[in-house]
Amino acid sequence: MSFINYMAREINCKIVYYGPGLCGKTTNLQYIYERTNPEAKGKMISLATETDRTLFFDFLPLALGEIRGFKTRFHLYTVPGQVFYDASRKLILKGVDGVVFVADSQIGRIEANQESVENLRTNLAEQGYSLDKVPYVMQYNKRDLPEIATPEELRELLNPTKVPEYEAVARTGVGVFDTLKAVAKLVLTELKKGGP
Amino acid sequence: MVNPQMVMYEEEFNQIQTVVDRLVKDANAKVVFIVDKNGQLIAASGDVDNLDTTSLASLTAGNIAATGGMAKLLKENEFATQFHEGEKANIHIQLVGNRVILVVIFDAKSSLGLVRLRVRKASEELNHIFEALLKKVQEPGADSPFAEITDEDIDNLFND
Ligand SMILES: Nc1nc2c(ncn2[C@@H]2O[C@H](COP(=O)(O)OP(=O)(O)O)[C@@H](O)[C@H]2O)c(=O)[nH]1
Ligand SMILES: [Mg+2]
Question: What span, in angstroms and rounded, lies between the C-alpha atoms of B105 and A52?
Answer without folding.
Answer: 30
